[in-house]
Amino acid sequence: MQVKEIMTKNPEMLAMDTSLSDAAKKMKDLDVGIMPCFTG
Question: pTM of the full predicted structure?
Fold first, then answer.
């Protein structure tokens, strides 16, 4: 098995400047407990 076989193909991400309340809402809407953040 390879990592690419189990990874999400188009993951949802949060920008580093996303407010905490917006991040919490998105995580609740998606029913996830962790989300990657990006810069740029």
Answer: 0.73
Task: Identify whether the C-beta of residue 8 lies closer than 8 Å to the C-beta of residue 17.
Answer: no
**pLDDT band, very low/low/confident/very high, at 16 (cuts 50, 70, 90):** very high
Provide the domain count of the chain.
Answer: 1
Range of the structural domain that residue 28 is part of: 3-38
Q: What are the Cα distances from residue 31, in Å, to 2, 7, 19, 25, 40?
A: 26, 17, 18, 10, 26
The arithmetic mean of pLDDT across residues 5-9, rounded, is 90
